[in-house]
Structures are given as structure tokens and as C-alpha cells.
Amino acid sequence: MKAVTITSEGTPVAGNVLNVEDWCDITPGAGEVVVKTEASALNHLDLWVGIGMPGLNLTYPRVSGSDGCGIVTAIGEHVNDSWLGKRVLLNAAVRQVEPILPNASSAPDDIRMIGEHDHGTNAEYFSAPVQNVLDVGDADPIEAAAFGLAHLTAWRMLVTRAKLQAGQTVLITGIGGGAALAAFNICKHFGCHTVVTSRHQWKLDKATELGANKTLLDTGEDWSRELRALTNKRGVDVCVDSVGGSLHFPIIKSLARGGTLVTCGCTAGASPKTDLARIFWNQLNIVGSTMGDMDEFRSVVSLLKSGMKPVIDSIHDASDAQSAFARLESGEQFGKVVIRWQ
User: Fold this and answer.
1) How far apart are alpha carbons 33 and 27 in whole angstroms?
2) Which domains does the chain have, with CATH numbers?
3) Is the peptide bond before 250 cis (omega within 30 degrees of 0)?
4) What confidence score (pLDDT) does residue 96 get?
5) Cβ proximity of 157 and 289 under 8 Å
6) Is the pLDDT of residue 11 over 90?
7) Per-residue pLDDT at 107 exceeds 90
8) Most Cβ neighbours (<10 Å): which of 127, 202, 241, 334?
């Protein structure tokens, strides 16, 4: 089958992206479905796979892709044949069942990511456990692929982890990325007041067109005073961040008393300066968040079915997938970068 492969680790990642015509065919295992891909979408995770994440011991060539929508064409044992012909959307976070041990306390499920630990959706076909796909009916496959992982990530961050309440003030850093724009969509759904940041004025202008209440141009300096001025000195109830690095400290200084920083990544660095005194004195919450489970995914897909739309930056034919990777790698995108397989 046709596939978009990453031939080796290194940067720029786009330079190592190669289309192949003879990637190995897929046979469904027990409890799995095989999906003929209509559309896949890129995430920053695709770049991490191309860079070569420390500790993963990835082998190359490999197929990345953790967002995918398509038609079920084959099923494995113990899968009901009613799945055949259904258009489905993937949740790439596969729950790992851990052994039950005596005196063990409960903990969040460990996950294995399709498109990271296993070959993913940037191919003519992909496979997944049947419990990790949902029927999306007549949804547009390009919109569905652009919707899935980003909105699932944002839903868990805001609703599950940060306990978002309607009408709260939410800071979203790095507007333009998929997770940031998904968080923006969800905040609008809950009637929240949004403040968004970017290093690019044109991205702030686009966010304003979409309905952002306040914008803040990030010049690389500490912008916490400016943020507090935008909120009448109160600060924000919640901050959604995947950047980390030097942004962490101004975020901490921008939270209202009892506020929550929820993070799903650290693309700018994992060891930032912080302020423990401010954290305990203002009773701040700092929580981590990763992907989401199938109950959360059902909530997210219900938003898609009810009319919520992803922001799409660009659509690339599979034959030109290298340009899709280059677009994401440039950091100039505003919304999701989608690969069309139809």
C-alpha cells in the first residue's frame, strides 16, 4: 500500500519524508479494524517522531500519524461485522492494561500512541483496536481528521483536569497550534472569556476574527503585567499551555488566586523558572494532562456532530505530504495541517 514514511531521525523532518508505494499491507488482529484512510492530520507529535524522541528507541523508516478518519474495510476476530463500511474517527491513545497488584493504588491509565509507538495514519490504510474508533457517520473526513486528537487533548485539559466552569477567564498561549485552537473552540462553547498570546500579530488578528476577547503579543519578555492589565489586575482562572520553557514564569504570575495552569507539553523546554512562594500563597494548581480516554472522546465527537468545526490551515494531497510536514515544521500554520488520501 501507499504510505508517507519518515526515513530517518533528524532535522529538518520534512527532508526525511518519503512517499512509498510498497509499504507492508495490514491484516487486522483480534479485536482490531483496518481503516481505508480518507484523511489524516499532523500534530507536533509527528515532528517529535521525526526528530527521534529520547528513550523511545524508534526504528526507521516508520509511518507517523495520530489523527485519521476513514472507512472500515476489514475486521479481526471478536469484532462485529456491523463495523464494515462505517466511517470512523481514531483516538490514537490506546489504553495499556496493567497487572492488578496487591495494595496497589489507582493511577491514570498508561497509554500507547498509534503514530508514535506503532505505525500510524499517514498511509493508505491504518489499523486500530475497535474500542479506539467511533462511528462519525456522514461527517466530512477532512474536518473529522483535523478535529480528533487536538480537541480530545483540549477537552481533557480544560474539562477533566482544570474543571472548567462556564464564564471563566482562560489564557491560551501560542494561538495557532491545533491544541490551542481546539481549546479556544471549547472555551467558546462554555461561554468563557478568552485571552490568547502569540509571537505573530497576524495570528492574533485571526484569533480576533474568530472571537477572541483579548490578545497579547508575546515579544519574548515577561508579559504578566500586561496580562493582568487586560483582566483588571485579577488574572486568569485557567491557563492552557503546551509551550513551557520561558512562558511558565509569566503564566504563574498571571493566574488569579486559586487559578490553574494545565500543561500538555513543553516544546520550548521542560525545566523552567518558577515561583513556589506564589504557588502556595495564591493556592495555585499546576496539573499535567495527556490525550484522553474514550468517554472523553465521545464527548468530543458529540461536539463535532453538533457542528463545532476545527480551524484548518491547509490541505495537502498525500502525494505532496513532504510539503505538509514542511508547513507544520515552519511554525507558520494557523490551524491543522491535513493530508488528503481520497
Assistant:
1) 9
2) 3-138+311-340 (3.90.180.10), 151-288 (3.40.50.720)
3) no
4) 77
5) yes
6) yes
7) no
8) 241
- Residue 122's φ and ψ, nearest 5 degrees, are -85, 60
| DSSP H or E stretch at residue 21 | none
Q: How far is CA 59 from CA 6, 19, 53, 54, 121, in A?
A: 10, 17, 11, 12, 17
Q: How far apart are CA 136 and CA 119, in angstroms?
A: 23
| Rounded CA separation 170/210 (Å) | 15
**Residue 153 near residue 55 (C-beta atoms within 8 A):** no
Contact 125, 37 (CB under 8 A): yes
The answer to whether 146 and 328 are in contact (CB under 8 A) is no
Q: What is the pLDDT of residue 125?
A: 98
Q: Is 250 helix (H, G, I), strand (E, B) or coil?
A: helix
- Three-state DSSP class for 201? helix
**Residue carrying the nine cell digits 509551550:** 243
Other residues' Cβ atoms within 10 Å of the Cβ of residue 127: 20
pLDDT tens, residue by residue, 46-84? 999 999 876 678 899 999 999 999 999 999 999 999 999
Q: Where are the beta strands (DSSP E) in 264-324?
A: 285-288, 312-317
Query: Alpha-carbon distance 324 to 318, whole Å?
Result: 9
The burial class, CB within 10 Å (0-12 / 13-18 / 19+), for 104 is exposed
Residue 78, Ramachandran bin (φ over 0: left; ψ between -120 and 50: alpha; else beta): left
Coil, strand or helix at 247: helix
pLDDT tens-place string over residues 208-260: 999 999 999 999 899 999 999 999 999 999 999 988 878 899 999 999 999 99
* Residue range 256-269, pLDDT digits in tens: 999 999 999 877 77
- Residues 128/130/133/136 CA torsion (nearest 10 deg): 130
CA gap 305, 315 in Å, rounded: 21
Dihedrals phi, psi of 135, to nearest 5 degrees = -70, 125
Residue 20 carries which side chain, given as an amino acid letter?
V
